[in-house]
Amino acid sequence: MTKIFVIYTGGTIGMITDPSSGALKPFTFEQIIENVPELRRMDYELTVYSFDPIIDSSDMTPEIWAFLAKLIKDNYDDHDGFLILHGSDTMAFTASALSFMLEGLGKPVIFTGSQLPISEVRTDAKENFITALEIASAKTEDGKARVPEVCIYFENKLYRANRTFKYNSAKFEAFRSPNYPVLVEAGVHIKYHDAVIGRLGNPVLRVHTNVSNKVAVLKLYPGISPAIVDSVLNSDAEAIIMETFGTGNTTTAKWFLDKLKSAIDKGKIILDISQCKVGSVEMGRYATSSALKEMGVINGYDMTFEAAVTKLMYLLGRDYPRDRLIRRLSNSIRGELTKN
After folding, report:
1. 12 is catalytic
2. What are φ and ψ of residue 270, in 5° steps?
């Protein structure tokens, strides 16, 4: 019998409407099972770990990511796959973080949740839960996991976790992955796109739980003031994600470029990602980004914001020498970016 380890952290999937107030309130995993009687017909042995108290995804922290990674490590050998029920608001952050923290992963770790509580008549929770379980249990003809990655399953699609972001709070199709193909599509049949699913030859799991939150964000906009730029560059952050225009462009104002160069000279790491959700940073394509490349700003290519944040936290936590950290930052280590 296929053994799946289910981690219930909280989120909308585990909410029920309070008849007296109309507000959503959490209930237990046992009540979730009561609302999905189909589970009794599925040939799975489920082991459940439920957070107590459950956590709103807005309250997720790196410490909880480390706890989840350790929980997977401790139960790895005894289970075929892992399913994490998580609130959708920060799901892409947690899932991206675990993709970096779980090195050498050979089994599926699938995140799912819902936009409506599982107790609602027309909820998306049941389909997300049941199909995510089915994918987590899927194996190849030689008995290996069909999808040995950290993934997000939502509304009939399975995405690589560190390529995904939440884009809609009002539709069942809450997530997108525009810069990397969908791994699995669930319709009448479940279609696996094997060519884009990452697989390791002989995976050996290594779990890294040290992460650093010494990361800041500098989001550019026309008219940004020197004082605002200073407040970010002169903070105690060791690395700064700079969200730029288009293919990685910034203002060419001398004061701005001088401040960036001064920060880099002082040891700050500055990562250039685009504010655009589709496409990639192409440093040097335009004159506006040539100066960035010359001063040592790191190209983030097509990384999502969520992947950029969690990858930097992971790399800073590894205590790498600066040159190695920069090298790993600008190259794909878990399939999180594609170079131009």
Report:
1. yes
2. -120, 120
Rounded to the nearest 5°, which phi and psi values hold at 48? -115, 130
Same domain for 231 and 185:
no
Q: Are 304 and 163 spatial neighbours (Cβ–Cβ below 8 Å)?
A: yes
Inter-residue contact 71 to 6 (CB < 8 Å): no
Write down the pTM of the prediction.
0.94
Of 9, 12, 90, 288, which one is the catalytic site residue? 12
Tokens of 54: 């459950």
Handedness of CA 319, 297, 213, 10 (dihedral sign): negative
Decide if 336 is inside a domain: no
State the Cα–Cα distance between residues 173 and 154, nearest whole angstrom.
7
Q: How far apart are CA 97 and CA 312, in angstroms?
A: 10
**Cβ-Cβ contacts under 8 Å for 97 (sequence gap 6 or more):** 62, 65, 211, 310, 313, 314
pLDDT in tens, 119-177: 787 889 889 999 999 999 999 999 999 999 999 999 999 999 999 999 999 899 999 99
Check whether residue 156 and residue 222 sit in a common domain: no
- Residue 158 sits in a domain whose CATH number is 3.40.50.1170
Angstrom CA distances, 128 to 133, 138, 184, 246, stand at 8, 15, 13, 34
